[in-house]
Every structure is written in C-alpha cells, then in structure tokens.
C-alpha cells in the first residue's frame, strides 16, 4: 500500500469511526503524569490525530494539543469532535512531514496510527520537532483474543474482510517498536478497556474498520449475517462486551 493510499483509507468510514471506535482509558494520562512528568504546560503533537480520541484526555489535562492529520475527512471530524476545547488546533500534515516548527513540542503521541507510518523518515521528523528530553508515546487499543466471543469475532474478520492480515496493528511487533526508539529504551504499560454494545454497535464497530466490506461489496451482507449470528449466540440482555488491551509504548528518541 502506498503512503497516499493509507492517508485516504478511512475517508468513507468516518461516521462509524466517530460513533463506534473505543476511546482511551483516563488512566493513560494519569500514568504519564508520573512516568514522564507530564504537566499541563507540555505541548503535545498528536500525529495521525484522526477523530481526536487520543487528543481529548490530554486536552482535559490542560495541555495544548496540535493534531497532525493528512486525511481531510478525518481531520474535519476531529475538529468537530474537539470544538469545545480551546487548546486544540489541527494541521494538514503527516508523520514524516508534520509542518511543525523545530523543537516545538514536548510530547508526540500517536493512537492507532504508528503501523501506517514509514519509520525512518518519521523518526527523523519526530526528532526534529521534539524539544530536548521530549518523549514519544505510541498507543493502540487492541482487541483481546482470550474470550470465546472475541476469538469468533476475529475469525469472522479473517473470513470476510479483505487484507485484514496485511493492515492489522497486530503486525507491529514489540521489536519493531523497540527499533524505532533505539538506541533509547522502549517502555510498555498495559491497560484494560471495554465497550458494551447492542447489535447496532457491534455492526458499526466492525464497519468502522478500513478492511471491512462496505455496502455494495459482495461480502457485505454475508459479513453482517455472520456478525448477527455471533451476537445472537453471545448476547446477554441484548448486549455484548468488546474487550481490549490498551498498549502504551513510550520513550525518548
């Protein structure tokens, strides 16, 4: 996939992305306050900021946050989602060309995004815009696979979606992330996260993914039928849990 393709990949998924993708645990920012001495005075660049979910807890912490997002639809959704926060602004930029000034930010964050980045040029750009002793935090909400519902949901994705194995964040291994930070050490902290959904929520969550078959695709209806069967077998009081681990990697470059 080309870099251009990746920047446009979610253009037709924005509405479902905003409504059904998981947010990030509040404990994440609480943890960074202690781990890297994050204060309200720190300027944060959220690279691949998308709909603004990761920027929000930092804004709630009092930080100024600059969202860097190349996809116009996603950037617009983020501007709308965060319109109540005076400390937020966004720019049309990418991980390897953020448009930000030299040594202008204290912390770079990226949520559900690093697996789309070209690492060599991204590292050079991050080094350029970070202030001395600045840090980089890479975050993913990854679905758990250790419960029957979650494993069957994963099986459906493999069966009915195109290129799921090629674009999943699961392809990014710890050693790949460690290589990005090297020679500095990489640190990892894990948090639990969960969404509770009725079937509309399960369907919307599935369709928010760039690899899921969209309406009009020959696999769209079979995909929804498989999800409906899965929901019917596991629902309790018309709800199921989609369980995640939130992985936070952080360190200096």
| CATH top-level class of the domain at 3-143 and 167-195 and 245-251 | Alpha Beta
The largest sheet, given as strand count, sense and whether it forms a barrel, is: 7 strands, mixed
Outline the low-pLDDT stretches: 1-11
Q: What is the CATH topology descriptor of the domain at 3-143 and 167-195 and 245-251?
A: Rossmann fold
Average of per-residue pLDDT values: 92
Main β-sheet, spatial strand arrangement: 3-2-1-4-5-7-6
Structural class: alpha/beta
Secondary structure: number of strands: 7
Proportion in helices: 25-40%
**Distance N terminus to C terminus?**
27 Å
SSE succession = HHHEHEHEEHEHHHEHHE
Total helices: the number is 11
CATH fourth-tier homologous superfamily of the domain at 3-143 and 167-195 and 245-251: Vaccinia Virus protein VP39
Cα shape: globular
Query: Which architecture of the domain at 3-143 and 167-195 and 245-251 does the CATH hierarchy give at level 2?
Result: 3-Layer(aba) Sandwich
Radius of gyration: 18 Å
Sheet-strand content, in percent, reads 15-25%
């Amino acid at each position: 996939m080309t870099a251009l393709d990746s920047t446009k990949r979610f253009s037709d998924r924005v509405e479902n992305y905003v409504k059904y993708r998981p947010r990030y645990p509040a404990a994440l920012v609480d943890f960074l306050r202690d781990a890297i001495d994050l204060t309200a005075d720190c300027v944060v660049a959220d690279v691949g900021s998308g709909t603004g979910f990761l920027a929000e807890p930092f804004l709630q912490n009092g930080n100024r946050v600059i969202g860097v997002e190349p996809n116009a639809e996603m950037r617009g959704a983020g501007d709308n989602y965060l319109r109540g926060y005076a400390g937020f602004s966004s720019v049309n930029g990418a991980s390897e060309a953020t448009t930000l000034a030299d040594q202008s930010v204290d912390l770079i964050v990226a949520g559900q995004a690093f697996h789309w980045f070209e690492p060599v040029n991204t590292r050079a750009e991050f080094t350029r815009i970070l202030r001395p002793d600045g840090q980089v935090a890479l975050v993913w909400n990854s679905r758990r696979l250790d419960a029957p519902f979650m494993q069957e949901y994963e099986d459906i994705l493999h069966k009915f979606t195109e290129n799921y194995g090629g674009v999943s964040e699961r392809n990014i291994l710890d050693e790949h992330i460690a290589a990005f930070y090297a020679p500095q050490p990489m640190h990892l902290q894990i948090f639990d996260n969960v969404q509770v959904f009725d079937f509309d929520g399960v369907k919307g969550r599935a369709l928010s993914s760039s690899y899921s078959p969209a309406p009009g695709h020959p696999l769209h209806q079979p995909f929804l039928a498989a999800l409906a069967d899965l929901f019917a077998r596991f629902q309790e009081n018309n709800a199921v849990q989609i369980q995640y681990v939130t992985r936070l990697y952080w360190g200096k470059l």
